[in-house]
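haha ok so turns out i had the wrong file open the whole time. this is the CORRECT one, sorry everyone. sequence first:
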Amino acid sequence: MMLQGTLDLIVLSTLQKVRRQDALAIAARLQQASPATLPFQQSTLYSALVRLEQQGRIKGTWGKTEANRETKFYAITTDGEKVLTEEIHRWKLYSGVIANLLSD
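then structure:
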């Protein structure tokens, strides 16, 4: 089970690295990078994409894939970049505290 709140961070990070992707490519990248112990539902990804777009953290534009399929492509916005930087900082702080507590 993926921790609540981490999917947005992962999607933003993915879009920062690849700049512009459709939902299927994002899902494939997440499945490739995620171990089987951290599964996610594709419907959850679509909900995250809608939420991030409504928040202005990503922008979706319609276009065609190389296979000439109409799809929505997503890219991270300036606001999304800012939020991602803040969330990465927060994640590192939290994970460091948890690692310290678990090692005691």
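The mean pLDDT is 85.
again sry for the mixup
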